Automatic annotation (TrEMBL), chains A, B:
Keyword Metal-binding: no
PROSITE patterns: GATASE_TYPE_2
Domain Glutamine amidotransferase type-2: 2-267
Tree of life domain: Bacteria
UniProt key word Acetylation: no
Stored SUPFAM superfamilies: N-terminal nucleophile aminohydrolases (Ntn hydrolases) (SSF56235)
Keywords, ordered alphabetically: Glutamine amidotransferase
One Pfam family it belongs to: GATase_4
Protein name: Class II glutamine amidotransferase
Length: 267, 267
């Protein structure tokens, strides 16, 4: 199995505090030693750092810990190999272009007897069931909405309505907890385990579960900032994280959930 | 304008020596300060590091200098912005998936009045003419060969025959020196300036142009290794580099040119 970390914000934010604890699970506080990756959006482009070495011991992870990259949407993943060997092409997140935007995807869970028919617009490069699921999601969006560009892309609500039933179908094959973003919106599906927290004014102190590190968000934020952090398991031990419902699909925008199973949430 | 660096080898090789000199041109020995990037293939997957900071001063470039990544195909680019702002989405190399393989592309030169019709399978994420050219090349391959996968992908000779005339058409709009790879083969087009060198047994010493650094390749290679390095301008001052012919298309495999303007070369 693997672990997921996502961040969705209303203002570009660095993820160093959360990543510090999360990366420890890649070999130190947990067993996810078979590669890791992290993707940061900057507008419609994403930069994706992946490495087949454990996150706790990777020179690339060391870079991420020391080089603050501010982003409104971040997806990270640490891997415990179940399907597919430990090599680069099997490391999440995966990235593809659709409608002139980068799309990034990471998955936690195993899928059994999962061999979707992919017509060829998006094909997996590696051997994981996860990348097949990602290709199926993008192919479905492309088939549903056709060729689109910056002028006429579908909105988050339309996209959600297409993605959600596909995720439910995929989840019939096993565990399908996933994070997916186009740099504007974070689409998430939880079949078993995912939690989130929204941090907003007044910001408080937070303390990591995985190492003795504390940050006072009040000193590094403004009154208008809002940040949603999503993780397989809570990253801090002095804040209240909200577990996702089983088999739920939640859409995050501007640092908060805006759609839960297709229903708009209120602030 | 920009500068290009490519490497194509018959055995996974690290590019640290060449990158050391090349990165100096990103702000120290030359003016290419508007971002840079490098992509390494590992089998059919590629990892791409990009940064909007000058290569001579980038924490990501520092990582590349210190973390040897062995690869048979590498493409790097340092940017002097002409079209498109200095931001991440305009940094080369660009990357897309076709037929279950990552394809990587970088371009040196400016294109005037270049607005190809892109039907939508591949759309630019950023604002550069370069990314439009890349999308046009991939779209042309897809239209010509249709949906393919690992079982029935076209070979390098078939691909070259499709890419070469498109590159000639693009070069009518200005300067089009480019490197493009799917992890097996390096496709290159030179409209004005590109040089290469093939290093093979017996390996000799090489000394960089851009800084006082020397390496004895004999101590880090085996008799069977062969490495082709391609660059906008020769990286070493004690070896003989071969300039590309104007408006030529050269295909490299296993560390040597195998096709020049469609004609097979002999060892």
């Amino acid at each position: 199995m693997c672990q997921l970390l996502g961040m969705n914000c209303n203002t570009p934010t660095d993820i160093q505090f959360s990543f510090e604890g999360f990366a420890k699970r890649g070999g130190l506080t947990d067993e996810h030693v078979d590669g890791w990756g992290i993707a940061f959006f900057e507008e419609s482009a994403a930069r994706c750092f992946i490495d087949h070495r454990p996150a706790s011991d990777s020179p690339v992870a060391e870079l991420i810990r020391n080089y603050p990259i501010r982003s409104c949407n971040v997806i990270s993943h640490i891997r415990k190999a179940t399907v597919g060997q430990v090599k680069l092409q099997n490391c999440h997140p995966f990235i593809r272009e659709l409608w002139g935007q980068a799309w990034v995807f990471a998955h936690n869970g195993d899928l059994k007897n999962f061999a979707p028919t992919l017509q060829g617009d998006y094909l997996p490069i590696g051997e994981t069931d996860s990348e097949q699921a990602f290709c199926l999601l993008l192919q479905t969006l492309k088939n549903e909405f056709g060729y689109r560009n910056a002028e006429n892309r579908p909105g988050a609500k339309e996209i959600e309505a297409v993605l959600r039933p596909v995720c439910e179908k995929i989840a019939e094959h096993g565990t399908f907890n996933m994070l997916m973003s186009n740099g504007q919106t974070m689409y998430t599906h939880c079949s078993t385990k995912l939690e989130y927290i929204v941090r907003a004014y007044p910001f408080k102190q937070a303390h990591l579960v995985d190492c003795d590190l504390q940050v006072d968000f009040g000193t590094v934020t403004t009154q208008n900032d809002r940040v949603a952090v999503i993780a397989t398991a809570a990253l801090t031990d002095n804040e209240v994280w909200t577990p996702f419902d089983t088999n739920s699909f939640v859409v995050f925008e501007d640092g908060r959930p805006v759609l839960k199973n297709g229903v708009e949430t209120t602030l």
